[in-house]
Design goal:
With 796 residues, the chain is of the alpha/beta class. 44% of the residues lie in helices and 14% in strands. Helix 9 (212-225) crosses helix 10, helix 16 packs across helix 23 and helix 18 (445-458) crosses helix 19. It binds a DNA duplex (15 and 10 nucleotides) through residues 84-86, 111-114, 137-138, 212-213, 215-216, 276-280, 380-383, 403, 437, 440, 442-447, 562, 564-566, 579-582, 603-606, 614, 618, 639-642.
Length: 796
DNA sequence: GCACGCATATTTTTT
DNA sequence: ATATGCGTGC
């Protein structure tokens, strides 16, 4: 198949009319720099494209696909393009469609995991599963591990399911299955892990399930054990392209090599400076050593070093930072863009002050005409999002938190999905255990234990064991309960068979199992939230159904299994809040990199040199997301765990070329950010730069002096306190918690009119707790009842 | 068997 | 501070 290609020369036009290939070539020559063009046109054998941040990488990949089709003559379905996230895959598909139109639909563009899933579905029987197998996520896996470890009598204190899960992932990334000779065996805990690993593997097989790692590892296994299958796919996929190659682990790069075969028409694109998944098994060596890994073959290397994204100063800041790393391909980005503004570095007292500063800059940007969806706030960990959410909500600015609370991970949502999975695959013990008491149906631990015993005695799934149990003469009450449950599931299976539509099955699940009635009965606020979530799930099934031609239960389950919260698309004009990890591959006009403190960013768990370099790469990724403006910020003290931590400014701040930075602080003036000497204790100093509080809604006419200075002086009391004091008008018409004694005689508040920045005016129905953190239930005319933390309300 | 209440760990990043 | 897990009482 090597000679399938005779590339480099476009197909000759038949007539004098320009062929699509010629048009494309002209277009490429006009719009691409020489390196990009080189990357697009080089199509024989292995190619490494070292694509610096903002160097037009996605453009190269999509145009390369177009070129392969238009000029080289490949059929779209002969191209495989792999990325890491669904989001990146979606963008690639979209942009390829712009170039190729409908034909792009035949190109397989997917994530590593979706590609693996697809292959495994096709050949399930060769890897010890039936085609109905399911995919276990982290949660399912830990449940199954818990079950397995219980059976093995492994003490959870000694080895937690979570630890076991990490262990399994570590081994899987190295392609070591259970029983592999290289599994660590020195310590007693290693032996326990190995034992658990083997038992877990068996349990997965019995449950007809794969976990995330399996999607890669078992695909590799499939290919290695069944060369004809591998040949089949190698023959189909003539060209393989990979994005974010720096984040591949050993199993993934091995899989790629298998797929590429002897022809090795494999193009990997990546940037070692942006590698950030070490903890997930990513091995930077995959990209660093790529040129040397094809014995006897020349590996072409193209470097994309021209940055089209960021202003000069931003690039300078990023480059000066990343230069501190040692393990990297040498390269230097350049741009023709002007230097642009200096990068402002803000020193706040508390994370609340940091958030308010970000908010102020954000409002300034909005006034200047920057659309909100071009603004992003980055932080190292999810938990940092909250303060920003608080201030944005106060200001009624729309925002999206990427990641964080994951819709598909909510309990009730997972419950419904577990029902679907169980209907689809009754051997799925994890799903069964999940739904068995939702709603409660009189099947308790005792009964379940007996069923489980039957199951392990006969080597069958719990569901099958239930049938045996029903035939036995065990206690009649539990037997009836089990029978009823089995009947429900069987009934649902009939629905599924009669009507293969996922939506119909989901509806039947809600009705027939009593799940809908059960959550309807719960009148608490959480219950209401749960109902809303289930409604939203049904809605999302409908949406999915409208978009897809394959509406089967299997298709839906696959779709959901691989979904992540990163996939929700930014709708409309909203500020984006996300972790730095989630930011990879994106760009924004304006970027805030927050929490630049030691212990936070770099993270306290990353002290070791290699880990620290990864943290630095993360900071590099963050900064290079910005097109026009980048703001950096840190807080002297930060709430964490309920405690107040005082941290030094991040070492990264000191590593950036100081000539592009413009330091400022909560109390005015500029200040060096090396060492704690930079800190003054704010209690006594009068703020010379106060945040522009007049911008906060409903604060016009507040007294000067008061709130801010007060909150600064008690900085350690935390974000909620300071944001409350900032938001509370100092006189008159506020919800004055202390005076109205919400806790004790809080009745006074009930019935009063209040205003919420987003929901508008409403009437207080109920107050729980006291002080600014009291939970106040308010009835709003438009949105109905909501429970809101007191500090976000204002009395009228 | 189930609901409620208290205690505990949890926070790095994700397919 | 919050979510989850475990124990106790109905």
């Amino acid at each position: 198949m090597d000679d399938f290609f005779d590339i480099g020369e476009p197909i000759r036009p038949l007539a004098s009319m320009a062929s699509p290939a010629e048009v494309l070539r002209k277009d490429l020559e006009r719009t691409m720099n020489p390196e990009q063009l080189n990357a697009v046109l080089n199509n024989q054998g292995p190619l490494l494209v070292l694509a610096g941040a903002g160097s037009g990488k996605t453009r190269v990949i999509t145009h390369k696909i177009a070129w392969l089709v238009e000029a080289v003559g490949l059929m779209p379905w002969q191209i495989l393009a792999v990325t890491f996230t669904n989001k990146a895959a979606a963008e690639m598909r979209e942009r390829t469609e712009k170039l190729l139109g409908e034909r792009a639909k035949d190109t397989w563009i997917g994530t590593f995991h979706s590609t693996g899933l697809r292959l495994l579905r096709r050949h399930a029987e060769l890897v010890g599963r039936t085609r109905d197998f399911v995919v276990y996520d982290q949660d399912d896996r830990e449940r199954l591990l818990g079950k397995v470890m219980k059976e093995l009598n492994v003490d959870k204190e000694y080895l937690s399911p979570k630890k076991a899960s990490y262990y399994i992932d570590d081994q899987a990334h190295l392609l070591r299955g259970p029983g592999h000779p290289e599994l660590p065996m020195e310590l007693p805990i290693d032996k326990t892990c190995a034992k658990v690993y083997a038992a877990y593997e068996d349990a997965k097989t019995r449950a007809n399930a794969f976990d995330f790692s399996d999607l890669i590892v078992k695909t590799v296994q499939l290919f290695e054990k069944h060369p004809p299958v591998l040949s089949e796919w190698q023959y189909k996929w003539r060209y393989v392209m990979v994005d974010e190659f720096q984040d591949t682990d050993r199993a993934q790069s091995h899989l790629l090599r298998l797929l590429a075969g002897d022809a090795a028409n494999l193009c990997v694109v990546g940037d070692d400076d942006q590698s950030s998944y070490r903890w997930r098994g990513a091995d930077v060596r995959n990209i660093l050593d790529f040129p040397d890994t094809f014995p006897g073959r020349e590996v072409a290397v193209v470097r994309l070093e021209r940055n089209y994204r960021s202003m000069g100063n931003i690039l300078k800041a990023a480059s000066s930072l990343i230069r501190r790393n040692t393990a990297r391909h040498d390269k230097s980005l350049w741009t023709e863009k002007p230097a642009g503004e200096l990068i402002r570095v803000f020193a706040a007292e508390t994370e609340g002050g940091e958030a308010r500063w970000v908010l102020k800059q954000l409002l300034d940007r909005r006034r200047a005409g920057t659309p909100l969806n071009e603004v992003a706030v980055f932080y190292r960990t999810h938990s940092q999002s909250r303060v920003f959410e608080d201030v944005l909500r106060m200001e009624a600015l729309p925002y999206i938190v990427v990641g964080g609370l994951k819709f598909y991970e909510r309990k009730e949502v997972k419950d419904v999905l577990a029902y679907l999975r169980l209907v689809h695959n009754p051997a799925d013990d994890v799903a069964l255990l999940r739904v068995i008491d939702s709603p409660p149906r009189g099947i308790g631990d005792k009964t379940l234990e007996r069923v489980a015993e039957l199951g392990s005695a006969t080597g069958t799934s719990l569901f099958e064991a239930m049938e045996l149990f029903a035939q036995s003469r065990e206690g009649s009450r539990s037997r009836a309960a089990i029978e009823r449950f089995r009947g429900q599931v069987q009934g649902l299976r009939v629905v599924a068979e009669r009507n293969a539509d996922a939506l119909a099955v989901a509806r039947a699940v809600l009705e027939d199992t009593g799940f809908a009635d059960w959550i309807k009965k719960d009148t608490t606020l959480e219950g209401q939230g749960r109902r809303e979530n289930v409604d939203e799930l049904m809605l999302s099934i409908e949406e999915w159904r409208a978009r897809n031609s394959d509406r089967s239960l299997t298709a839906f389950i696959d779709h959901v299994s691989l979904l992540t919260s990163l996939d929700q698309d930014a709708r409309g004009q909203a500020v984006t809040l996300m972790t730095v990890h989630a930011a990879k591959g994106l760009e924004f006009d304006t970027v805030f990199v927050t929490g630049l403190e030691e212990e936070v960013f770099p993270h306290f768990n990353s002290k070791e040199e290699a880990a620290l370099e990864e943290e630095r790469r993360l900071a590099y990724v963050a900064i290079t997301r910005g097109k026009e403006r980048v703001y950096l910020s840190y807080a002297r003290s930060r709430q964490r765990f309920g405690r107040t931590d005082v941290n030094m400014p991040s070492r990264f701040l000191g590593e950036i070329d100081p000539t592009v930075l413009k330091p400022e602080s909560e109390f005015g003036g500029s200040r060096a950010f090396s060492g704690s000497a930079g800190w003054t204790h704010g209690a006594t100093s009068r703020p010379s730069v106060r945040p522009d509080l007049s911008t906060l809604q409903g604060l016009a006419g507040r007294s000067t002096g008061g709130g801010w200075a007060a909150s600064a002086s008690k900085a350690s009391s935390g974000s909620s306190a300071s944001s409350a004091s900032a938001s509370r008008p100092s006189h008159g018409r506020s919800l004055d918690y202390a005076d109205s004694q919400v806790g004790g005689g809080g009745g006074e508040l009930v019935g009063r009119q209040v205003v919420h920045p987003r929901f508008g005016r409403g009437k207080v129905l109920k107050v729980e707790g006291n002080g600014e953190d009291a939970r106040v239930t308010v009835k709003f005319p438009m949105v109905g009842e909501k429970t809101i933390i007191a500090r976000f309300l204002q009395a009228v």
